[in-house]
Amino acid sequence: MIQQIDYFVIAPPLALALVAGLVLLLDAFLPARPRTKPVLGLVTLAGVLIALAFVVAQAIKGGPPQSTFCVPADLAGPTRLCSFVADGFTLVFAGMVLVAAVVVVLMSMTELAGGGIPVGEWYFLLLCTLVGAVTLPASRDLIMLVVALELVSLPVFALTAMKRYDGRASEAAVKLFVVSVVSTAIMLFGVSLLYGIAGTIYLSRLAVVFSGQAPAPGLAETTALATAQSLPAVVSVGVVLVVAGFAFKIAAVPFHSWAADVYQGAPVPVAALLSVISKAAGFAGLILVLVAGLAGQAATWAPIVGVIAALTMTVGNLLAMRQRSAVRLLAWSSVAQSGYILAPLAVAAQGVTPRLAGGTGAFPAGTRSGAVGTSMAYLVIYAAMNLGAFAVVLLVSRTATRNELDDYRGLAFRRPAAGLALAFCLVCLAGLPPGLAGLFAKVFVFREIVEGGSGWLALIMAVNTVIGLYYYAVWTARLFTPPTAPVLARHRPTPTTWLAIGVAFAAAVLFSIAPQLILDMTTLSAFG
């Protein structure tokens, strides 16, 4: 059997992979001069933009979901089995990742301008991470999901340790490596249990098997009847392990302790990558496995996700209140934001009845029409706000070694553009006017979980929103407070720094002006 490959469907990750190879070749053969650093950065940026253009072209083409790496119809049976699907869900996540990657590449050009970090290796590893992040939301089988998730994670270890002879960076890389290995082992154990019971790796087939719409392949009817009592317990263990594995990836409680140390030790662009791109990939995988593959087991995982969401937003906010370091505050804030993103998933699969026959769409019929889309919308809005904050933090870090909150006193007077951009992003994260993007994002989530019947979770979210106001307001107030100590010599930021701030700030303003566009796009994309 010769499998046909639709290269247009896989064009975005393929373009990123080809540019990654080109960056290595250019790094090896170009003269070792300072002028070659911007060249590699521009090539990387061009590769990201080309991949984004392919995503836009796929979205414009429209029509039914495009797929490749599919099992022939005569072998697949009534359910179409494909490993790579470019539907609305895939395109929204890929577009968000690539736009965020533009900001991260611009920040990287600023970080690498100071020297001390191998430029070619940095951009190669960054592009490899992006290949995994773009591939993951298109993955529709367990093997591709695991491989794509590891492709997101593994290069970040090296990126974190790229600052040679920096003890904090090395410590952060080791912590991230250990956490990632443990999470992968836990997730693989859960995946193996699910595969062992269902006899398939495809999410669409898992959905119908675990919902009772079809028997597990390879099991005789008598055997299936004999194990009917023990089957739910084994499946529940597999579901819990898979949820735990993804909880490590998104820094959800109780698997959150690594976040602050890793964010602080890593270079600022890597911290931004972890807080947005890596987190988005983790959420894409979690949504696909739970809602697309295990919707029939929602009675098992929905309460777990609800409890994890409540704990994550509470612990993240309480720990953020105690921070004096800007990066550590953003790290714990990122943990709290993960709780808000998780909350709608607790009601995402209410009343789901997967169909035995169907197309390649991501989610089965009956999934709550707004839950998955709400999580996606919040994640998109959060990405813009957080990247804007990290871009300004990168600017301040060039003159403030410790990068504490006190270093931001009077920033709105010393650098009005940067100070106002950071103030707007922090106000957005807090959910206060004029940062309407964050306010609407929280309203979307609150409305969805109330309509889903999780009033207790909505109450916890409301309390945490008030708690979060404190540390965002304290940081914002410092921006407009005269400094108590003499200010260090002014550092002239590179144009790429201002461009990164401008892109993120423009996105946050756009989402504040037209939040309904994001909600409509993500809600519709989650089902087409």
TrEMBL record:
It comes from the Bacteria. This is NADH-quinone oxidoreductase subunit N. Its EC number is 7.1.1.-. It catalyses: a quinone + NADH + 5 H(+)(in) = a quinol + NAD(+) + 4 H(+)(out). The chain crosses the membrane at residues 6-26, 38-60, 88-107, 119-136, 142-162, 174-198, 233-258, 270-295, 301-320, 329-349, 376-396, 417-436, 456-475, 496-518. InterPro entries: NADH-Q_OxRdtase_suN/2 (IPR010096), ND/Mrp_TM (IPR001750). Keywords: Cell membrane, Membrane, NAD, Quinone, Translocase, Transmembrane, Transmembrane helix, Transport. One of its GO terms (biological process) is ATP synthesis coupled electron transport. GO terms for molecular function: NADH dehydrogenase (quinone) (non-electrogenic) activity; NADH dehydrogenase (ubiquinone) activity; quinone binding. It is an enzyme of class 7 (translocase). GO terms for cellular component: endomembrane system; plasma membrane. It is a multi-pass membrane protein. NDH-1 is composed of 14 different subunits. Subunits NuoA, H, J, K, L, M, N constitute the membrane sector of the complex. It is found in: Cell membrane; Endomembrane system; Membrane.
